[in-house]
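Need the bound structure for NAP, inputs here:
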Amino acid sequence: MQGKTVVMTGATSGIGEVAAVKLAAMGARIVAVARNPKRGEATLARLNEVAPGLAHRIFYADLAQLADMRRVAAEIAVAEPRIDVLINNAGAMFANRQLTQDGFEMTFALDHLSYFVVTMGLRERLLASAPARIVNTSSEAHRGARFDIDDLQTEKYTSLQAYARAKLENILFTRELARRLKGTSVTVNALHPGFVATRFGHESGGIISPLLKLVQRFAISPEKGAETIIYLASSPEVADVSGEYFSNCKPLAPARAAQDDGLAAALWQKSVALTGADWPQ
Ligand SMILES: NC(=O)c1ccc[n+]([C@@H]2O[C@H](COP(=O)([O-])OP(=O)(O)OC[C@H]3O[C@@H](n4cnc5c(N)ncnc54)[C@H](OP(=O)(O)O)[C@@H]3O)[C@@H](O)[C@H]2O)c1
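Answer from helper R.:
Posting the output first, comments after.
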């Protein structure tokens, strides 16, 4: 990874932070997006300790808000002439239905739209830096989604259903983007990290937070959970692989809905209509 620049969301905690630190140790320069200055500075300090002299950087944004998604992507595009790898990883689950300032259901905005808008905002840089890679953190939770393209805001809310849908959207987004990227040397893949003991769910509220903290005793470590992200971001084995879903560093067939090209195209069109961002064919 020497000489490569990796842009990453969700790099201040859990599997994202482990992946950022390990990729930095492999020689990558990390450009992280954080929402909290204290957590951002702590991650930057860790990166500089493990891999000094690489000019790692932190940009700040609340990735649940459309204006922030757009602004941070534009700032990074101006500041970074090369982007070799983009890792969309920031995500969360919310016990109660909340709307963002834009009127979007919070899980949909953070877990899907931020991947979409940040990637679109870095399009020119990724294409200009080819061969380049995009890595999208999804989840096996996608298999529980009862997806409805006309109900992207999950009006009849349960936290699990909103989360499962968003993680399905990560795979559909990956699939449609891979189709649009054919003929370029930019690849895009999605992954499930495993059930990992991180801060995931700790701020969800309701019963989710204590419940997750309890069952996370049986979860794998963030070091183990970060392995597939690191593999997709760096391994020569997957340099030419695109549009796939991985678990344990191996391709895995996702749910049938996640393999539906019509659904992937429909989600793309709706995401364009909602955000104004696009990646023309
Ligand atoms: N843990 C699991 O078992 C598991 C399983 C499958 C998939 N995943 C997926 O893995 C990814 C990473 O999760 P994790 O387990 O590492 O959880 P985590 O420890 O809670 O990390 C989540 C990351 O996302 C960031 N984030 C959350 N909301 C944000 C916002 N509004 N704006 C900007 N950044 C925001 C967090 O920032 P702060 O540091 O400021 O909180 C943190 O860096 C998520 O996409 C999750 O869906 C996790």
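Comments: The longest strand covers residues 186-192. The mean pLDDT is 97.
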